[in-house]
Amino acid sequence: MKQLLKVKVILMVLLTLGGCAVQMEKTRRAGRVAILKPSKIERFKELHKTAQPDMLEKMKERNIHNYSIYLKDLGQDRFAAFAYFEYEGNKIKDDILPEENDIQWVGMEEVFYFDGKTDAKIDETKVQRYGMVIGLRPEMVPSYKLLHKYAWPEVLDAIEKGNIRNYSIYLLKLKGEYYLFSYFEYIGDNFNTDMSMVDNDPATIAWIKFTDIACQIPIPTRAEGEWWAVMEEVYHFD
């Protein structure tokens, strides 16, 4: 009897863990990028400024949410449109919207994710979203991916204390050059103060010597004082 009870308990635990695993995998993140011709930029921005209701309805029906599009001039007459979204279905290949306005979106490899303060009680209307881009040295691609696979706990702790959540970094090779695109959400009250705290964290200072200084190449069109170049948000759909 005791042995049977023990088996039942083990089965219940396994089922519970299995259910948790399914729940954790329910939301999938995706990053896509497209290279736009300079002549297409204004039209692209205008189309997303006045997104049609039927398109928004299709996104809801296809389990797509938290969809943001960012734009940045990479130099050499290349403009990158970076899209981040979350998917809560089980047929992602069927549900992802088809190509729009002859733009060829390309899927990206997620090399880092940190959920951060997902349980914080905040006013969601005040969440600030950021999209950023930077180059990556070709010979450092394996090292960069490995570093972020085993990100230092102290660095993650600083990110969380800096009120950053839902932080993803994506990698893609574009025309022979490697680029990193990142998306994160800020849920604090003073972005500059919190970012200064993160930048001055001892573990983070040591971390960026391996990840930023050794691996990354800032793009030439970044603003003065930027390392990662901040992209322009041209569209967001909750």
What would you note in describing this structure?
With 238 residues, this protein is α+β, with helices and mostly antiparallel strands. It has one domain: Alpha-Beta Plaits. Helix content is 37%, strand content 34%. The chain has 8 helices and 11 strands. Strands 5, 6, 7, 8, 9 and 10 form a 6-stranded antiparallel sheet that branches. A hairpin with a 2-residue loop joins strand 7 and strand 8. It is globular and about 50 Å long. The relative contact order is 0.18.
Largest sheet: 6 strands, antiparallel
Overall mean pLDDT: 85
SS elements, strand count: 11
- CA radius of gyration is 20 Å
Uncertain spans: 1-25
State the CATH topology.
Answer: Alpha-Beta Plaits
State the main characteristics.
single chain, 238 residues, alpha+beta, Alpha-Beta Plaits, six-stranded antiparallel β-sheet, five-stranded antiparallel β-sheet, 34% strand, disordered N terminus
What does the secondary structure layout of this molecule look like, with pairings?
Elements: H1 2-26, E1 28-36, H2 41-49, H3 53-61, E2 64-75, E3 78-87, H4 92-95, E4 106-107, E5 109-116, E6 128-136, H5 141-149, H6 153-161, E7 164-174, E8 177-186, H7 191-199, H8 202-215, E9 216-217, E10 229-230, E11 232-237
Antiparallel strand pairs: 1-3, 1-4, 2-3, 2-11, 5-7, 6-8, 6-9, 6-10, 7-8
